Amino acid sequence: xxxxxxxxxxxxxxxxxxxxxxxxxxxxxxxxxxxxxxxxxxxxxxxxxxxxxxxxxxxxxxxxxxxxxxxxxxxxxxxxxxxxxxxxxxxxxxxxxxxxxxxxxxxxxxxxxxxxxxxxxxxxxxxxxxxxxxxxxxxxxxxxxxxxxxxxxxxxxxxxxxxxxxxxxxxxxxxxxxxxxxxxxxxxxxxxxxxxxxxxxxxxxxxxxxxxxxxxxxxxxxxxxxxxxxxxxxxxxxxxxxxxxxxxx
Length: 249
Fold this sequence. Notes:
Layout: E1 2-4, E2 11-13, H1 20-25, H2 33-47, H3 49-52, H4 55-68, H5 70-78, H6 83-95, H7 103-113, H8 120-130, H9 132-139, E3 144-150, H10 152-160, E4 162-165, E5 168-171, H11 175-194, E6 200-203, H12 208-215, E7 224-226, E8 235-242
Parallel strand pairs: 3-6, 3-8, 6-7
Antiparallel strand pairs: 1-2, 4-5
Helix pairs in contact: 4-5, 5-7, 6-8, 7-8
């Protein structure tokens, strides 16, 4: 029976156990039912991780850090950072599938930067820069990070369109320009994927949050990193720049 594999969107077929050997002999990748279900459940959990992270979960995580690195939690409390604020930062990281295993470092950055700002977006960006090597590693393949950038003229135009509201920064683009920019990024992404790459889009730090929001609906699986997050221990493979027919945005 032909199906569309729901996690990766690949064409697949269900075959009976008696046909496994034949399928493998034909070069097919055969995965047993339990592994398929486990993979799908893990993907669903990863996709909905921000929604699954409750306030109580955050308290439990903070208490775990307290047991091994009490100074970090004491600094966090001294800075007056609430569990709700910490939860918002962690949820934002999980929404972009950023690993939060190094919770001590995350809390340390939150406590330090919260003395300057309580803006969640700015706190998240500070944490991301601190976790840059881990973020890059999670998107790298065999020590190589495939990167797509924005043409400098386009990037400057997008920076000029930046605006903020109560939910964060966003790109104030007219529908035609937004469509052209989105299509240009999609074209670069498809070209890279056809060559077997899984690229990330890299842009200026101040543009990154709005760029991620801009792509969230149309290309949700494409990571957006800032130049400040790039790690020195990886080889950066520059696959090209996003350009438009016109020279301005």
